Amino acid sequence: MKVIITSDKSNGSKKGFEIFEKSIANGAKVIGLATGSTPVALYQEWVKSDMDTSNLTSINLDEYVGLAPDNDQSYHYFMQKYLFNEKPFKKTYVPDGIKAIKDPEGASDDYNKIIAENPIDIQLLGIGRNGHIAFNEPGTSFDSVTHEVKLTDNTIKANSRFFDNIDDVPKTAICMGIANIMSAKEIVVMAFGDNKADAVAKMVEGPVTEDVPASVLQQHQNVTVIVDQAAASKLS
Ligand code: F6R
């Protein structure tokens, strides 16, 4: 793993965007995208840029079960707001959170097919404080593919900051599995702030274990980790 320590989130996000720019200039066409607070500044760099995205396909990591694309807490909506409204892609994919209400397996199978037909060239990831990637919580099999996930109380609590009421946070999500993420040719993980320091140290230097989903990335050939000083503070 290559680790880049930047002075702050703003510089880290610029660095992250440069990696995407370079990869796209070198022919990457299928871009794996993430939501959450971490990638927002990178998307702002993207929107400011003059990059033509009309030939690109995007595949997002996850979506809440039960939220329609026009729900302002859905990940569909997030992506429209922060990136796609300004930078239209040729095709964008986010798991179908409505189909998943009645048919989570069907929604998951559809997504695995989409990923198989559109192999991901470069994947953006954030990391949870417990080392989760996408909604793959500790204990998720490294062999997992897209599946329905029951969100942990901690994740529901962390994500409740985006909702009016913690009871409004969906209890399940459809999420790419670890094997889908590992199939990307290149991966960029970003983490900022001291509340990510433990997870970053375990991801980069800890044992590779399903107890820390992000530790699997040590087994990938082309991963860049971008952290600020605070998130890097527990690296040796
Ligand atoms: C987002 C996602 C999550 C987040 C992680 C960190 O699509 O899948 O794994 O990357 O929870 O969230 P933030 O960036 O809000 O700290």
Brief account:
By secondary structure, the protein is α/β, with parallel strands linked by helices.
- Main sheet, how many strands, which sense, barrel? 7 strands, parallel
Give the bound compounds.
Answer: fructose -6-phosphate
Shape: globular
Q: The CATH topology is what?
A: Rossmann fold
Task: Write up what this structure looks like.
With 236 residues, the chain is α/β, with parallel strands linked by helices. The protein has 8 helices and 10 strands. The strands form 2 sheets. A 7-stranded parallel beta sheet has the order 1-10-9-6-2-3-5, sandwiched between helices. A 3-stranded antiparallel beta sheet has the order 4-8-7, covered by helices on one side. The chain is globular, with a radius of gyration of 16 Å. The two termini are 14 Å apart. The protein binds fructose -6-phosphate (F6R). Fructose -6-phosphate is lined by residues 34-38, 61-62, 126-128, 132-135. InterPro entries: Glc/Gal-6P_isomerase, Glucosamine6P_isomerase, Glucosamine6P_isomerase_CS, NagB/RpiA_transferase-like. It catalyses: alpha-D-glucosamine 6-phosphate + H2O = beta-D-fructose 6-phosphate + NH4(+). It is an enzyme of class 3 (hydrolase).
